[in-house]
C-alpha cells in the first residue's frame, strides 16, 4: 500500500509539472493541488505516516520550508525601492499586528467565553503571522505594484519572529490558569523577548553581509561554480537560523534579515537564487502540503466544531483586515490597495509550526481544539487565497494604483 501511495504521489507531481503553465494561469495553486492530494492519500492510506511520527515529521518539513522561503524571498527584496515605501510594512507590523492580536483575542474569548484569556490570546498570536509561501502568487505577480508586493513580503518575513514572544507569554498564561508549571519556560520573559528581537537581527545582518563579501571574493577569483553558489545559499540559510537560535535570538527574524542583507550586498548576479526557488524550493512546498493534507487536516476535522470554523473565517477576514486598514490610514493608499494588503495575509507554515510546538510542550486545556482551529484556518486560507490571487492581482492592471509612487509620510508629530 505504501508503494502504491508513493506511486500516486510521483504521478501527481509529474502531472502537475506537465500542466504547470496552464495551472499557473488558472485559479488553482500548487498548495491547493497538493493539500488535496495529501487529503486523498491520507484517506486511502491512513497508516502512510506512522502515528508516532506524524506531528514531528510535519513540524520538521514545515520548519525547513519556512527557513528556505524566508531567506530566498528576502534575498530578492531591493532595499533602494523598499526605503521609499518602508512606512507600509512598518505600520502593518508595529500597528496592524498588535491590533490583530488584540482583536483576535477578544473574538476568541467571545466565541469561547469559558476559555482562559491566556488561551484566547494564544490562538490570536498563533494565527496572526502571515505566510510567505502562500503569498508567492501575489509577491511574484508583475500585475501587483512593487511597493505592495514588497510590503507583503517584508511583513510575512518579520511577523513570524515578532510573534514568538507573544505566543510564549500567552502559552505560559494559559498554563498558569490551570495551576501547572512548565519546566522549560524562560526565567525572565522580558529578557527572552529582548534577546530574541536583538540577537536574531544581529546574527542575520552580520552573517548575510560577511558571506556576501566572501562569495563575491570567491567569484572574482573563479573559485566557485554556479551550482555551488546555490548550495552555499542553502547552507547559509540554515547556518544563520541555527546560530541565531543557539545564542538566544529568533531564528526566523535572523533568516529573513540575513537573506535581505545577503541579496543586497552581493555584487554578482543573483539569478541562482530564483533558479533554486523554482526547483528545490517548489519541491519542499509540495512535500509540506502533501504531509499537511495527509496528516494535519484529518486531525483537525476530527476536532472541528462551529467555534473553530467561525474563528477560522474571522481570522482570515475581519480580524486581519480591520487592523490593517487602521494601520495604513494617512499613507495615501487607495481603498483597493488597503483592501488588498488586508486580505492577502494568508496563514500557513508559521502558524502550523507554532501550533505544533505549543501542542507538544505546553499542557494547555483544549489544545486539540486550538490545533484544529489553526489547521482549519490554514486549510481555508490555502483555498481562498489561492483562488483570489490572480483575479485580485489583475485588478491593478491599468489602474492608477499600479503606479509605484512613494507613500505619503506622516508630518512630524503625527
Would you summarize the structure shown here?
It is built from 18 helices and no strands. It is an all-alpha fold and 414 residues long.
What is the third-level CATH name, the topology? Na+/H+ antiporter like fold
Nearest-integer average pLDDT: 85
Number of helices: 18
Distance between the first and last residues' Cα: 64 Å
What's the order of the H and E elements? Answer: HHHHHHHHHHHHHHHHHH
Total strands: the figure is 0
**How big is the Rg?**
21 Å
Walk me through this protein's architecture.
With 414 residues, the chain is mostly helical. The protein has one domain: Na+/H+ antiporter like fold, CATH 1.20.1530. Helix content is 74%, strand content 0%. The chain is globular and about 65 Å long.
What are the defining features of this structure?
single chain; 414 residues; mainly alpha; Na+/H+ antiporter like fold; 18 helices; 74% helix; globular; disordered C terminus
Q: What secondary-structure arrangement, pairings included, does this model have?
A:
Blueprint (H helix, E strand, L loop, with lengths): L1 H17 L1 H5 L5 H15 L9 H22 L3 H6 L2 H25 L5 H10 L9 H4 L6 H31 L12 H32 L5 H21 L4 H15 L5 H32 L3 H11 L1 H10 L7 H9 L5 H13 L5 H28 L20
Helix pairs in contact: 1-3, 3-13, 4-11, 4-12, 4-13, 4-17, 6-7, 6-9, 6-14, 6-15, 7-9, 9-10, 9-12, 9-17, 10-11, 10-12, 11-12, 13-18, 14-18, 15-16, 17-18
InterPro entries: Cation/H_exchanger_TM (IPR006153), Na+/solute_symporter_sf (IPR038770)
Protein name: Sodium:proton antiporter
Subcellular location: Cell membrane
Amino acid at each position: 500500500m505504501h508503494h502504491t501511495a508513493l506511486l500516486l504521489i510521483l504521478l501527481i507531481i509529474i502531472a502537475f509539472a506537465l500542466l504547470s503553465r496552464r495551472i499557473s494561469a488558472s485559479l488553482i495553486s500548487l498548495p491547493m493541488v497538493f493539500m488535496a492530494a495529501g487529503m486523498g492519500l491520507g484517506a486511502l492510506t491512513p497508516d502512510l505516516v506512522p502515528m508516532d511520527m506524524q506531528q514531528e515529521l510535519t513540524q520538521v518539513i514545515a520548519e525547513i520550508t519556512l527557513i528556505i522561503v524566508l531567506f530566498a524571498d528576502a534575498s530578492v527584496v531591493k532595499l533602494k525601492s523598499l526605503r521609499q515605501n518602508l512606512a507600509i510594512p512598518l505600520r502593518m507590523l508595529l500597528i496592524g499586528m498588535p491590533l490583530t492580536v488584540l482583536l483576535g483575542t477578544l473574538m476568541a474569548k467571545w466565541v469561547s467565553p469559558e476559555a482562559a484569556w491566556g488561551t484566547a490570546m494564544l490562538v490570536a498570536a498563533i494565527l496572526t503571522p502571515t505566510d510567505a509561501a502562500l503569498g508567492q502568487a501575489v509577491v511574484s505577480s508583475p500585475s501587483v505594484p512593487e511597493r505592495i508586493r514588497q510590503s507583503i513580503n517584508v511583513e510575512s518575513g518579520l511577523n513570524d519572529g515578532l510573534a514568538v514572544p507573544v505566543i510564549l507569554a500567552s502559552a505560559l498564561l494559559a498554563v498558569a490558569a490551570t495551576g501547572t508549571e512548565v519546566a522549560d519556560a524562560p526565567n525572565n520573559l522580558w529578557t527572552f523577548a529582548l534577546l530574541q528581537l536583538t540577537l536574531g537581527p544581529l546574527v542575520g545582518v552580520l552573517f548575510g553581509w560577511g558571506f556576501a563579501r566572501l562569495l563575491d571574493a570567491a567569484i572574482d577569483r573563479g573559485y566557485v561554480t554556479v551550482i555551488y553558489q546555490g548550495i552555499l545559499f542553502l547552507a547559509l540559510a540554515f547556518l544563520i537560523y541555527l546560530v541565531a537560535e543557539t545564542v538566544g535570538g529568533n531564528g526566523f527574524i535572523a533568516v529573513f534579515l540575513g537573506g535581505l542583507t545577503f541579496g543586497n550586498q552581493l555584487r554578482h548576479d543573483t539569478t541562482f537564487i530564483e533558479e533554486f526557488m523554482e526547483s528545490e524550493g517548489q519541491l519542499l512546498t509540495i512535500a509540506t502540503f502533501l504531509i499537511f493534507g495527509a496528516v494535519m487536516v484529518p486531525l483537525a476535522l476530527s476536532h472541528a466544531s462551529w467555534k473553530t470554523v467561525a474563528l477560522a473565517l474571522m481570522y482570515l477576514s475581519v480580524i486581519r483586515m480591520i487592523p490593517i486598514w487602521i494601520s495604513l490610514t494617512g499613507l495615501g493608499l487607495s481603498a483597493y490597495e488597503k483592501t488588498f494588503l488586508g486580505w492577502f495575509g494568508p496563514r500557513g507554515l508559521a502558524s502550523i509550526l507554532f501550533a505544533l510546538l505549543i501542542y507538544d510542550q505546553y499542557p494547555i486545556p483544549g489544545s486539540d481544539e486550538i490545533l484544529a482551529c489553526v489547521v482549519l484556518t490554514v486549510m481555508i486560507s490555502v483555498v481562498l487565497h489561492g483562488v483570489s490571487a490572480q483575479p485580485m492581482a489583475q485588478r491593478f492592471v491599468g489602474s492608477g494604483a499600479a503606479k509605484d509612487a512613494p507613500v505619503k509620510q506622516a508630518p512630524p508629530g503625527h
